[in-house]
């Protein structure tokens, strides 16, 4: 028992990957780590990983989890502020204001956990690590999915989604000495014969693609004549953009994991939900916790 207690109270560097609503699985992973007594001492995240990781470092993850699990599709749409210009179709100001109201804010250097948000300087083509300054400036920069959210102008730079160059940012956590490096990849491979949602119910991906936020995004683009040439298979500009980003991020993730070789990789299949389905928070969070439990149990078995 003493050996088990020692294992379950080790320190962790946590790497939270990009992936839109699938990043809600990060909440479940953090909940499982804390339930087992692991101490998270460093967090690095891209996109949704930066958002969840930052809110956890702020000490308000439970508040955020309670809020996001209560959202339905109408609530999600109410947080969208459409943009007529600026390099994206969503400004993101309304979302950031809501999050600040919900959990408060802090400068990163005052957080009790070492935290880095990864973004990309789109003008210089360089990865940017943000580890000081206002937390929500860092988060807003890191979640700026190209052509979806408008880029975030910060410190004289034009910043977009960190997942563009580094969807699983292991390197920033190497500055902190911990017992384990755990990566949560939410663009994991999807079993070809298992196109099911976390609750286990089959669904038609094409039907989902026509609903909720993605349907509004598609209609918004079409209103400017930019999506009228959709292919016969039904892939419009918005779908092509999102699937292209996911494919690129999956390839980069494989390369980074091969280079850095983290101690634990928790892989969330990319077909558990679409990147805009924040109304599906509860089953995605539960899935993250279950996958974390399985991987940590396997780790304990190897060390036992």
Strand content: 15-25%
- Tally of individual helices: 11
Which range best describes the helical content: under 10%, 10-25%, 25-40%, 40-55%, 55-70% or over 70%?
40-55%
The class by helix and strand makeup works out as alpha/beta
Oligomeric state of the chains present here = single chain
Low-confidence stretches: 1-6, 193-197, 199-210, 224-232
On the 0-100 scale, what is the average pLDDT?
A: 86
Number of strands: 10
Topology:
Elements: H1 2-7, E1 11-16, H2 25-35, E2 39-46, H3 48-57, H4 61-68, H5 73-78, E3 88-90, H6 93-103, E4 114-121, E5 126-130, H7 135-142, E6 147-149, E7 152-154, E8 157-161, E9 180-188, H8 205-209, H9 212-222, H10 237-260, E10 264-269, H11 281-303
Helix pairs in contact: 2-11, 3-7
Describe the protein.
The protein is of the alpha/beta class and 304 residues long. 40% of the residues lie in helices and 18% in strands. The protein has eleven helices and ten strands. The protein has helices at residues 2-7, 25-35, 48-57, 61-68, 73-78, 93-103, 135-142, 205-209, 212-222, 237-260, 281-303, and strands spanning 11-16, 39-46, 88-90, 114-121, 126-130, 147-149, 152-154, 157-161, 180-188, 264-269. The strands form two sheets. Strands 1, 2, 4, 5, 7, 8, 9 and 10 form an eight-stranded mixed β-sheet that branches. Strands 3-6 form a two-stranded parallel sheet. Helix 2 packs across helix 11 (281-303) and helix 3 runs antiparallel to helix 7. It is globular, with a radius of gyration of 19 Å. Residues 1-6, 193-197, 199-210 and 224-232 have low confidence and may be disordered.
């Amino acid at each position: 028992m003493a050996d088990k207690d020692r294992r379950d109270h080790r320190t962790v560097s946590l790497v939270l990957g990009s992936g839109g609503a699938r990043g809600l699985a990060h909440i479940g992973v953090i909940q499982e780590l804390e339930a087992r007594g692991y101490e998270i001492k460093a967090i690095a995240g891209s996109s949704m990983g930066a958002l969840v990781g930052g809110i956890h470092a702020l000490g308000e993850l439970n508040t955020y989890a309670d809020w996001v699990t209560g959202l339905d599709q109408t609530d999600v749409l109410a947080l969208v502020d459409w943009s007529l210009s600026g390099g994206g179709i969503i400004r993101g100001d309304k979302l950031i204001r809501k999050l600040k109201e919900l959990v408060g804010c802090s400068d990163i250097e005052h957080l009790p956990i070492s935290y880095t948000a990864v973004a990309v300087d789109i003008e210089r083509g360089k990865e940017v690590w943000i580890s000081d300054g206002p937390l929500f400036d860092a988060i807003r920069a890191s979640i700026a999915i190209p052509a979806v959210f408008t880029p975030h102008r910060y410190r004289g730079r034009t910043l977009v989604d960190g997942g563009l160059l580094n969807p699983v940012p292991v390197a920033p956590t190497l500055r902190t000495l911990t017992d384990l490096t755990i990566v949560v990849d939410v663009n994991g491979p999807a079993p070809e014969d298992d196109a099911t949602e976390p609750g286990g119910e089959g669904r038609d991906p094409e039907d989902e693609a026509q609903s909720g936020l993605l349907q509004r995004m598609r209609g918004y683009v079409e209103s400017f004549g930019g999506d009228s040439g959709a292919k016969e298979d039904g892939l419009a500009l918005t779908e092509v953009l999102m699937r292209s980003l996911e494919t690129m991020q999956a390839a980069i993730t494989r390369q980074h994991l091969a280079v850095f070789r983290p101690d634990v990789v928790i892989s969330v299949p990319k077909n558990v939900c679409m990147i805009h389905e924040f109304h599906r928070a509860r089953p995605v969070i539960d899935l993250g916790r279950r996958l974390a439990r399985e991987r940590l149990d396997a780790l304990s078995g190897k060390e036992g």
